[in-house]
Specification:
single chain; alpha+beta; 2 domains; four-stranded mixed sheet; two-stranded antiparallel ribbon; 6 helices; 6 strands
């Protein structure tokens, strides 16, 4: 990749990263929640659904979904977080109980990486999950459709 473009991309990430460390946005990572209820409350305060990507470290399909669809959307202001199938880091669930990301993935019944989920009030799913990577030509359309459905549910 052209070093000048990489630097511009990094600077863009720094400028749009908001409350996250600049390095996080520059590396192409999505935010990892410490509390699902907190992340949902922040999204709902903006009248947006919370988009959760269940990912698997090293998964090439996860990388494509993250880097080509969700990271740009997050940089534009979409409320997106990521949890990992095997990550032992603690996260508070919807009721405030401490669990791990991996346990939360199982609790949500996610079995395919990547899976993108859309949450509204009371931690309920408000749009059909996007499981797997689909055909890349259509993934953006599927994501847009689910987001429109999720936003309509949250704003109703």
């Amino acid at each position: 990749m052209n070093p000048t473009w990489r630097r511009r991309e990094w600077l863009l990430g720094v400028g749009l990263a908001g409350t996250l460390p600049a390095a996080l946005a520059a590396e192409g990572a999505l935010p990892v929640p410490s509390s699902m209820a907190g992340a949902l409350a922040a999204a709902l305060a903006r009248r947006e659904p919370l988009v959760v990507m269940a990912s698997l470290a090293g998964c090439p399909f996860c990388r494509i979904v993250r880097e080509h669809y969700l990271l740009p959307a997050w940089r534009e202001g979409m409320a997106v977080v990521q949890i990992d199938f095997r990550d032992p880091r603690p996260v508070r669930d919807w009721e405030g109980r401490v669990t791990t990301q991996g346990a939360l993935v199982k609790e949500l019944g996610v079995t395919v990486a990547p899976t993108v989920l859309f949450f509204g009030r009371a931690g309920r799913e408000v749009a059909e999950r996007l499981s797997g990577s689909y055909i890349s030509d259509f993934y953006g359309a599927y994501l847009d459709q689910r987001m429109a459905q999720a936003r309509a549910a949250v704003r109703a």
